[in-house]
Amino acid sequence: MNSAARLQATLDLLTDVERTARPVDAVTSSFFRSRRFIDEQDRGAMLELLYALLRHQARLGWWLARLGHADSPRAQLLAWLILGQGRSPSNVARQFDGAKFAPAPLSDAERALLAGLRNHTIEHPEMPDAVRLECPDWAMAPLRQRFGGAFAKEMAATLTPPPLDLRVNPIRASRAEVLKGLHKLGLEAEATALSPNGIRLPERLSLARLPGLKTGEIEIQDEGSQLVALLVDAQPGERVVDFCAGAGGKTLALAAQMNNRGHLVACDVNESRLKRCAERLRKAGLHNAETRLLASETDKWVKRRKGGFDRVLVDAPCSGTGTWRRNPDARWRAPELGLEALIALQSRILASAARLVKPGGRLVYATCSLLPEENEAQVAAFLAANPAFRVVPLAEAAPNLTGLTPAEYLSLTPARHDTDGFFAAVLQRADQAPESA
Ligand SMILES: C[S@@+](CC[C@H](N)C(=O)[O-])C[C@H]1O[C@@H](n2cnc3c(N)ncnc32)[C@H](O)[C@@H]1O
């Protein structure tokens, strides 16, 4: 592909991304599946450009509005070539020449746009904070409150390309073996700083270069997500529930921690995600887990299995604000249910899942949210309503996890930990229910 054809192909991809409500990685996978002729190098270049556009969407939109130009994927691309790549209008015009596979020639309005953007950069002193920081309006106040003076730094960190983290499946291989294999392939892989099972690759790469994914030796999992699973501290032989298992990211980590012994139940209300979870368990050689589809968080199964589990993980549906660095498009999709309804759902899920915990057992509440309403406040409300539970501080919950600042809760952010944003609280049910409970 020549560079003009790459621009047009990226424009087609961006148009697909903006047309659907599906997450960007799902859209890119189906885009490339139906265009197998695009080689690895072109794919890499296109994804880099696509993600740069998505990370600058509010600022590009601001410039287009300022110059009175309608916002569209093509206009965003044109603006980025000038503001982000520092090209000149004539350089851009040369590639938008209507040749085969190249973008259509520039209209007069587009030529005027390029002239208006000339000699500017992406930032402008008149940009409001929400635009400069690429923060949706609904999240400005809660995130500002959460981070105080570090708000701008945290938002800037969500706009940097994330590393690619892998979790080694200890049932299939050791971290040292996998690292050696990756180095042999010429990849700059290194052990993660906090997770004992993690490997970090500094950049996005074609997953076809990671054969261990097919054999179940490795899984793609952010280091923060690995730490949440480790905090559950599930032991071989125990009975464990992953209440919001989804497609099984943490289920797989828990089943492996249990060394294929004991019993793990992966629940969810979403059947297709659970199917994917079951497939991944099989591929990873993990057979101590079953999946269970729930009708709702108060499914009869929960009542029947009351007090039956040593560990229960609630990886609750949340605003996903902690994943903005990895999914730059996610920030522009407000929580489907609305934040208030989401918080109410989390509280119902937590209350119901807590019933599964046996005396002396532990409940781990986690989100990939940066918002206190979904995290600390949610836990405080739960504790007020459930005096049989107490907080287990990090050092006690996972004494082997060195490197974490001692605190009550796990609270990871892209700026401070170079992971996705994650929150987790470990709560223990008293050995005997108090008289009053
Ligand atoms: C954050 S995702 C889980 C991600 C998963 N644990 C992982 O590590 O890959 C939250 C999950 O909660 C599920 N969920 C939503 N409402 C639920 C409910 N009422 N009861 C149980 N699970 C629910 C969603 O279907 C979704 O899969």
From TrEMBL:
InterPro entries according to UniProt: MeTrfase_RsmB-F_NOP2_cat, MeTrfase_RsmB-F_NOP2_dom, NusB-like_sf, RCMT, RsmB-like_ferredoxin, RsmB/NOL1/NOP2-like_CS, SAM-dependent_MTases_sf
Source superkingdom: Bacteria
PROSITE patterns hit by this protein: NOL1_NOP2_SUN, SAM_MT_RSMB_NOP
Pfam families found in the cross-reference section: Methyltr_RsmB-F, RsmF-B_ferredox
Active site: 368 (nucleophile)
Keyword Transferase: yes
Record key words, sorted: Methyltransferase, RNA-binding, S-adenosyl-L-methionine, Transferase
GO molecular function, one term: RNA methyltransferase activity
Domain SAM-dependent MTase RsmB/NOP-type: 154-430
Amino-acid positions noted as binding S-adenosyl-L-methionine in the UniProt annotation, renumbered to this chain: 268, 315
One GO BP annotation of this record: RNA methylation
Family affiliation: Belongs to the class I-like SAM-binding methyltransferase superfamily. RsmB/NOP family.
Entry protein name: RsmB/NOP family class I SAM-dependent RNA methyltransferase
Species annotation: Thalassobius vesicularis
Lineage: Bacteria, Pseudomonadati, Pseudomonadota, Alphaproteobacteria, Rhodobacterales
